[in-house]
Amino acid sequence: MSNRQPILQQYYTRGRQGVFRSNEGYDTVAKTPGLDNQFIKKTLHPFCVYDAPRQLQERAESNLALFPEALVSFQAESGEMVLGRSVFVGADFTGQRNTFFSHNYVIPADRRDEFIKNPGKIFGVRTFADRHDDAAGKELPAVDDIPSEKGLSQDRKQLLGQMGVDERLFKQLLFAMMSSLAAKKKVFISLDVDISASSKSAVQLLEILYSCLPYEMRRHFGFLTFSNEPQSKKHIHVTFVEKGSIRPGGGHSDKDFLFDFSLGRVQNVDLQAGGHEYLDFAWEYVNEQRILDAFHEFCEEVLAGADHALALNIRTYYELCALYLIEKGRTSVYESKRAGVWQALNSYLGHGSLTRKKRLIELQEMLMRIEVEALSSKQLPDGETIKQMIESYRVTRQERLQMDLIRFLMDVLMKAKTARQSSYVAEVYKHLSSNRELFGFMMRTIFGYPQLVKPLFEDYMTERVAAVTSLDQMLKEIRFWTETEPQAMRNAVFIATTTEKVLRLFARERQKLAAAITIHQFFENIDGARSYADELLDELDKSLMKLVALDTLSKDDFQVLIALLEEKPQSFFGTLDMESRQKQEMLMNLAKLHEERSTPHPAEFFRKWDREAISVQQRMIQNMLSKPLHADEFPQVPLVFYREDHFGQEGFQFAELLEYVQQNGGEAVTLSFIQWTMSQRMFFEGKYLLPAYRQALKAFFLEEKGKRLRDKEWRKRWYAIRNADFRKLLDEVRSETANPLVKLFRHKATVISSAVVLLGAGAWGGYLVWGDTSTHVQPPETQPEPPRPPAVFVPVYRLMMDEPDIQPVRDVLGKRSQDASTGGQPVQTTTP
Questions:
Q1: 497 Cβ partners below 8 Å, 6+ apart?
Q2: What is the CA radius of gyration of the chain?
């Protein structure tokens, strides 16, 4: 008993009742019990249809034999293959209406290859029913197989010629059928034959074309051998239609593939001349089904595991056909398009989903042998072929093949160099270097043959380095070699060439220190090249010391440069030239200043330096001072403004120093700075401020008429600085900037005080004298006059005070009267 799933059946026509309806009408009238009802309704019923030819209807043709059969086949979405036929059967059971009869076989998905690989089992079926007896019931048996006749036996090219199909039209038809699967276009064909013979001709033509379709395309292909009008149907790709029905607005799309044989017209099939390997192959072997089947089996093997996009693309079969022909020994196909063949081969070898690549690998070995033989005859492969051969290294994992390829490429380079084909050599290296794995493998092989190192490594490397135009590119070039072939780091020519290039490019950099740090950081991340890196970096740092402008360094730059130098061994400094060594000593001098945070006297600090070196260090210090200025940086400020005149006299630019502190710190920082200077011996001669510094301070406080001392709060702060000479300086500034009257008073205080005392004493004496005379000496016969109030004297210094204590006249007189009446004794009074 067979274990195969059975083939199910279904009948459809107009009857008294059906499987799904109890009254008369079109319906499934019988089916195999195992056939799903929903499958029948949704999948089979849309294809149970027959529209009689228009010309037979118009003449009321009654001869049923003249009506063409409609053979249909398609692949259901659930995987089954449907093979059916609809025929015109004349009057129905009522005898009043014409009807048709459809018989469909439903072939299980796992058995469809039995049919698609043997087109005779599709096109040779002669067991389709054209009627059903209601008395037989509504059940049909499942069948193990569908009997069929042998396929076409006569010469197919001759048969095609009888239908008017020449080579070009054959290729157009086959191209349209193959393209329709991926392009979502329909193919409509109208044969130039009598309507009664149209179905037979359609089946014959379709069987020939179908046998040329690759198996995977057949698994998705659907056809209908007769329809009275072009109609787009789901699952159907090729439809044969009644002659004269292909016309504008005839139910087809303007983009569909249209073949009207009667008019000799083909539309929307743009078949360019040449380059159609598979179409040429199919036409060549259309009469040799065995060869066509062998190619289809080759495609099955290569495309095992492929997705639909690859397996349904006509270009796929063009490429596989070329590979198949080469495999079979037709090397002319390879010689006509070497690069294209390698590219196609690489695409399939590199396709991750393909699971069976044995024949492709064998083909690759064959192509390699062909190229080696050609090279032995001094025939160099073209650049594009080289590119594709190099690409093959990535897709094949056969070590022997990879090694053969390496040797081949080395031989190509040597022969090309011998022939002085420099541009060709450059192109080969370009393709090689794009494949790091292959390039590294080749370079490792080259280093194993000392005689090859110069021509195949050093010459090429030198040309690459010469083409570099920027430091960034140069670092990438070094990284390329360290990652590709670390042995290059030990090659003397490589070391000398790259070091020289790095130094030359470094010299062109505007930001020298930043560039040097970039290079240092680059080599910190490079593994396996320590010796090479140390040697290069030593040369770089020598160049840096020679080229760097110290007086342009920022504080951060200075710290970075110091850190860089501190990592150097003592032997490094012995290799510096005189100028660089002096720069290094100046850097160390300032580094010591920052490290010790002391307050050196400028004369001591700059003792060993000439004027130019002092100036450079001063600019360096100034560049590193913070803005705003910090208190811990005060000791460095005097160093910036220290000057030595031509006669060796030491001094400071005190005015500029104070201005700098004020501009870069503000009033509060300036106060702190001046307070700090009061504790530094460099600003004093004994107990007194240096005259130049005192003069600068005085000018500083005299600015804007002593503005700094007019504010009461700030005056307190300035006077809080504990230094007698400084406070005396502040007094001088206050005196020189005071109000003229106050200034007069302050400067003449003693003189005025004495004058006031004398005037006061004289006035009092006069008063006493005049007072005695008025009491004891009176003119005769004259009445005594009432006493006058004494004149009130207000000292000048009281007028100059902000609130002079001037008593009202009446109070003074009242007091004087009381004193007189009491004999000069004080009397208690109450002020109203």
A1: 461, 462, 465
A2: 58
Mean pLDDT across 711-733: 94
Q: What are phi and psi of 26, to 5 degrees?
A: -75, 130
- Three-state helix/strand/coil letters over 659-701: HHHHHHHHHHHHHHHHHHHCCCHHHEECCEECHHHHHHHHHHH
Distance between terminal CA atoms of the chain?
A: 149
Name the amino acid, one letter, at 185.
K
Q: Is the dihedral of CA 794, 798, 803, 805 positive or negative?
A: negative
Between 828 and 33, name the one with better pLDDT: 33
CB–CB of 364/401 below 8 Å? yes
- Per-residue pLDDT reduced to its tens digit, 742-797: 655 555 554 555 554 455 555 544 444 444 444 343 444 434 444 444 444 444 44
**pTM confidence score:** 0.71
What residues have CB less than 8 Å from 102, skipping those under 6 apart? 10, 11, 12, 13, 47, 48, 49, 50, 84, 85, 86
Domain ranges for the chain: 8-136, 625-737
Could you tell me if 649 and 655 are in contact, meaning their C-beta atoms sit under 8 angstroms apart? Answer: no
Amino acid at 777: V
The tens digit of pLDDT for each residue in 36-56 reads 999 999 999 999 999 999 999
Q: Which residues contact 487 (CB under 8 A, 6 or more apart)?
A: 443, 444, 447
Torsion-angle region of 256 (φ positive above 0: left; ψ -120 to 50: alpha; else: beta): beta
Nearest to 573 by CA among 563, 562, 585, 561: 585
Strands 187-190 and 223-227: unpaired
Whether the Cβ atoms of residue 278 and residue 333 lie closer than 8 Å to each other? no
pLDDT band at 251 (very low <50, low <70, confident <90, very high): low
Cα distances (Å, whole numbers) of residue 445 to 409, 434, 448, 456, 457: 11, 18, 5, 11, 11
**Is the Cβ–Cβ distance between 190 and 241 less than 8 Å?**
yes
CA 264, distance to chain mean position in Å, is: 56
- In Å, how far are 13, 29, 50, 211 from 16, measured between CA atoms? 10, 9, 19, 42
Angle between helices 555-566 and 578-596 (to 10 degrees): 110
Vertex 488 angle, CA 484 and 493, to 5° = 145
